[in-house]
Amino acid sequence: MYYETEMMFPPRTVSSLRDLRGKEWQKLVDRVSALPEMHPDTLAFMLMMVRLDGCLKCAADSYRALRGCELCARQTVDRFKGSDRDLIKQFELARKEVLEYLESKDMVLKKAA
């Protein structure tokens, strides 16, 4: 059986990560899941997950890719050794980077902050 695999972490899988961690994580996932795909916070969540999952090193014929992005992401979040707060810090760092990039390109979406 082949699962759907993307080139990068797909935002459609965010909600599937909700119940893997504690309340802080669940709150973040709930908030990001309700946002449009191009919202800076969604982009920041995607960037954080790309880094945590190692998406840039994933090859289309690798075991991880064959299992699919959702299972890979679930396993990564589930096995993360830090606290929920550590994950939130990773998100905040990615959010800062995304906002800086969008501002530098004059692409900031209204009401992003």
Helices and strands in order:
Elements: H1 23-33, H2 40-53, H3 63-67, H4 69-79, H5 84-104
What is the CA-CA span between the terminal residues?
42 Å
Shape: globular
Strand content: under 5%
Per DSSP E runs of 2 or more residues, the count of β-strands stands at: 0
Helix/strand/pairing category: mainly alpha
Please state the average pLDDT score: 82
Provide the domain count. Answer: 1
The radius of gyration is: 14 Å
Poorly predicted tracts of residues: none
H/E topology pattern: HHHHH
Helix content: 40-55%
Oligomer: single chain
Q: Characterize the main sheet.
A: none
Number of helices: 5
Protein described:
The protein is mainly alpha-helical and 113 residues long. It has one domain. It has five helices and no strands. Helix 1 packs parallel to helix 5 and helix 2 crosses helix 5. The longest helix has 21 residues. The model has no long low-confidence stretch (mean pLDDT 82).
